């Protein structure tokens, strides 16, 4: 049985926890939108700052962990079972073996959930356990013009500086422009592959789309992913 031991040095992680979806600062900026956002901001901040003096669990289930956290924090935890099971994750197979000291609640969740492709997402006064893809939100469809990447490059012939008779015509002997054949961007699949390399995401998630032609890159993914794709396409222009 593997045990994890953590000291109080991890206090530097107070500003954020990788396994939590959302930012208390960004939610706080939008607090004027309503009480739901305020509750979310407060709970998300609590997950990142509320410290537990000791966490000791042996061969516990995920439900055991969440029940214990519910007791010690007073917060609500809910597992999105249909979503998780549809993603092929066996919740019954998750066993928790932890021995931690002076850690935040969010870090405990990150330790346990991160190993199984799961995250904690705060909505209102509830901490949901779900898949990374579900936590990002509903996918939306966008097209990106990639003609500036897929155009055919040509090796142009420089001007002839030799002195030639007036009216001289080289005819068939004149050097011709040569298309550049080894440009990987001529294949739209190269753009798809680059997006996957530059934007780490759950591209195989249900409902997501990533495909390309010589004219457009078609992407169906959550808004946060779309923003990263747009940046990646812009950066590709420098690779052409």
Describe this structure in words.
The protein is of the alpha+beta class and 240 residues long. The protein folds into two domains: 8-132, 3-Layer(bab) Sandwich (Phage tail protein beta-alpha-beta fold); 140-157 and 178-239. The protein has nine helices and eleven strands. A four-stranded mixed beta sheet has the order 1-5-6-3. Strands 7-11-10 form a three-stranded antiparallel beta sheet. Residues 1-18 and 23-31 have low confidence and may be disordered.
List keywords for this structure.
240 residues, three-stranded antiparallel sheet, 9 helices, 2 domains, alpha+beta, four-stranded mixed sheet, Phage tail protein beta-alpha-beta fold
Which residues form runs of ≥5 with pLDDT under 50? 1-18, 23-31
What is the averaged pLDDT score? 84
CATH topology of the largest domain, what is it called?
Answer: Phage tail protein beta-alpha-beta fold
CATH class of the largest domain: Alpha Beta
Helix % is 25-40%
**Strand percentage:** 15-25%
The count of strands amounts to 11
- The total domain count is 2
* Oligomerization state: single chain
Termini gap: 51 Å
Our count of helices gives: 9
CATH architecture of the largest domain: 3-Layer(bab) Sandwich
The SSE order reads EHHEHEHEHEEHEHEEHEEH
What structural class should be given to the helix and strand makeup?
A: alpha+beta
Shape: elongated
Largest sheet: 4 strands, mixed
């Amino acid at each position: 049985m593997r045990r994890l031991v953590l000291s109080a040095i991890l206090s530097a992680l107070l500003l954020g926890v990788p396994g939590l979806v959302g930012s208390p600062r960004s939610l706080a900026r939008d607090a004027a939108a309503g009480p739901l956002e305020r509750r979310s901001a407060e709970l998300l901040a609590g997950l990142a700052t509320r410290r537990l003096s000791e966490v000791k669990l042996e061969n516990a289930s995920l439900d055991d962990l969440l029940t214990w956290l519910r007791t010690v924090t007073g917060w609500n935890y809910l597992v999105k079972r249909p979503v998780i099971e549809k993603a092929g994750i066996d919740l019954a197979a998750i066993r928790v073996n932890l021995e931690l000291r002076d850690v935040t609640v969010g870090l405990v969740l990150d330790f346990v959930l991160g190993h199984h492709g799961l995250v904690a997402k705060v909505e209102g006064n509830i901490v949901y356990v779900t898949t990374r893809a579900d936590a990002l939100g509903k996918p939306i469809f966008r097209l990106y013009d990639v003609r500036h990447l897929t155009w055919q490059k040509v090796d142009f012939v420089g001007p002839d500086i030799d002195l030639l008779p007036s009216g001289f015509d080289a005819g068939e002997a004149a050097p011709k422009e040569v298309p550049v054949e080894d440009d990987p961007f001529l294949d739209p699949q190269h753009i798809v592959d680059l997006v996957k390399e530059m934007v780490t995401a759950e591209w195989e998630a249900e409902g997501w789309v990533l495909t390309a032609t010589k004219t457009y890159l078609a992407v169906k993914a959550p808004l946060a992913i779309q923003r990263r794709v747009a940046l990646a396409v812009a950066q590709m222009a420098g690779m052409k």
